[in-house]
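Researcher: Next sequence.
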Amino acid sequence: MLIDTHVHLNADHYDEDLDAVIDRARDAGIEKMVVVGFDRKTIERTMKLIDEHSDVYGVIGWHPVDAVDCTDEDLEWIEELSKHEKIVGIGETGLDYHWDKSPKGIQKEVFKKQIALAKRVNLPIIIHNRESTEDCVEILKEENAGEIGGIMHAFSADENVADEVIGMNFYISLGGPVTFKNAQLPKDIAVHVPLEKLLVETDAPFLTPHPYRGKRNEPSYVKLVAEKIAELRDMPYEAFAKATTENAERLFNFK
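Model: Next structure:
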C-alpha cells in the first residue's frame, strides 16, 4: 500500500472523470490520498472531497504565486476550516520566484503568517519552493518552523539543503522527476535521504512520471515513483512502500 502525500484532485483537469481516477488509485493500492487546496476554489473543493471519500484527506493553505491575493480574512477562514478532523496539514505555502505575479516581500509575509497559523493549529506545514531555496530555508529558520515540521514538497534542491531541512524536522517528498531519464539530482536525493524521512507524491495533474510524461498525472502513478526509488535504493518495493506509508501516517496522524 502507498500514500500519495500531495495531489490536486481538486483541479479542473479531473472534472470529467474524477471518480474513475480515484478508482484507479484504489486499484493500484493507493491507501490514502492527500489533496492540497491552495486558493479559495481549490480549498472549497478539498473540503467537499474529504467529506465524500473516506480515503481522501486534505491540506489547505495559500500558494506563494497567489500571495498577492491572500487576505487576513482568507487566513482566518483557513484556520477555521483546519479544525476539520480530516485536514492534516497547512499549505502548500512557501516561495516561488519563477513566476512574478506576487512580489517577493508579499510572498515572504504570507509564508510567515502561515507558519504561525500552522503552529496555532498544531499541523505540519507543506512547503512549495521554486527557485527560492536560500530565502525559503532562511524563513523556516527565522520562524522556528521546526516546532511543527512538515514536508518539503516536490523537493528539487541539493543534498546539503536536504540535510539542513531534515535537521529542522522536515520530510523530503519526491515525485515524477525521479523517474526522468536525465534528472540526476532527484535520483541522488532519493538515495541520500534517510528512509525514515522520505515520502512519495504525484503532485497530479502535474509532474507526470515516465512513461506517461507529457500526459495528465494521476494518483495511481505514485506507484511508479515508489518503484523507481526502491530500485535506486536497491531495496524491495514492498519494504519501501511500507516505510513511506508509515512515515506519512506518523507525520499526518490520520484520523
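Model: The two ends are 18 Å apart (CA to CA). Residues 85 and 255 are 7 Å apart (CA to CA).
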